[in-house]
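Annotators were shown the component list below and the corresponding predicted structure, then asked to write short factual statements about the assembly.
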Amino acid sequence: MQATAFSPHDHTHCISSAISHAQSLCANRGVRLTPVRQRVLELVWQSHQPIGAYELLASLAKEGFNSAPPTVYRALEFLSDQDLLHKLESVNAYVGCCNPDTPHQGHFLLCQICHQAQELDSQYITLALKLSADQHGFEIQHHTIEIVGTCQGCLDKSKTPESVL
Amino acid sequence: MQATAFSPHDHTHCISSAISHAQSLCANRGVRLTPVRQRVLELVWQSHQPIGAYELLASLAKEGFNSAPPTVYRALEFLSDQDLLHKLESVNAYVGCCNPDTPHQGHFLLCQICHQAQELDSQYITLALKLSADQHGFEIQHHTIEIVGTCQGCLDKSKTPESVL
DNA sequence: TTGATTATTGTTATAATATAACATAACATG
DNA sequence: CATGTTATGTTATATTATAACAATAATCAA
Ligand SMILES: [Zn+2]
Ligand SMILES: [Zn+2]
Ligand SMILES: [Zn+2]
Ligand SMILES: [Zn+2]
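Structure shown to annotators:
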């Protein structure tokens, strides 16, 4: 099992890969990854911690971009439409999508210690949702699945007191 | 399979049962279901459609209750702490809880046509979440599971054109 | 190339949701 | 009653998000 967000990894690779992926994907789709859109995507990918719209806005402002709310919300809307990021409803914040090629809703693990989010695409969960919906004759359009808890890394740290190190 | 919210039923029974249940539950727990708290709970139970804080506030104001935001948010916090309602994060609105005796997070079906919400407690979903989390060594504290789509009643209506009626 | 068309961005204002901070009142208990 | 605690009142403000319209930039057909 390789978790990405929660385990040590070369995150510069996450960023560069996400951006180059987004560039080719937008080119293929005939949509424009404009400077502000790309910069918002880069900012979202700065870490695996979901980031809020107004935090993005502050960064854009520092960098000389236009800094009114509609600017960032439009960029977020575009990136979301292109499946390049997801909004986490329970924290009003945004994370980069790991798999933008195929439209999907993710399932998310959110660590309340390190505040990182990991997107899953669990067939278990997808099937369980479908079974439950079917039982009620309910036709699913989309869903919000956000699981809050403690990630393995943070659990390990909490079980290793300073004195033992 | 008996769905409650989405199928015709005596909703006055939902309301009175929720309120009397809440009264005895608060008495047992030694907490106070004050007038404003009970009224908020009644308003939440007016229908199976999740209701927003400011809509509650407007109703309270009409009825002569204090009508500043903290009033309703405090009542919502109390009711949530007592497991008498849930917040639906994806719509910033609140629904009465069907099973306040045992602390839990619900799973919700939200119909985008009739805007009603049905709380589930699906063992399928609970198990799937646990399996997925375990695979990542992730310890679950709580979750947000909100499934948006079309309920059976609204599907039936859409499949029965006017001309046939 | 020009002009029409559409997509994108700029700008101002405001809506919608939620909380901080502190004062007052009600309740419980000895 | 005196006291500590819980609940409510009040004012202000924080946070998140969108409406509305103007200006600019890209696209494309003639
Ligand atoms: Zn990374
Ligand atoms: Zn963590
Ligand atoms: Zn009902
Ligand atoms: Zn419906």
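Statements collected:
1. The radius of gyration of chain B is 18 Å.
2. Residues 32, 52-54, 69-70, 73, 92 of chain B lie near DNA strand C (CB under 10 Å from a C1').
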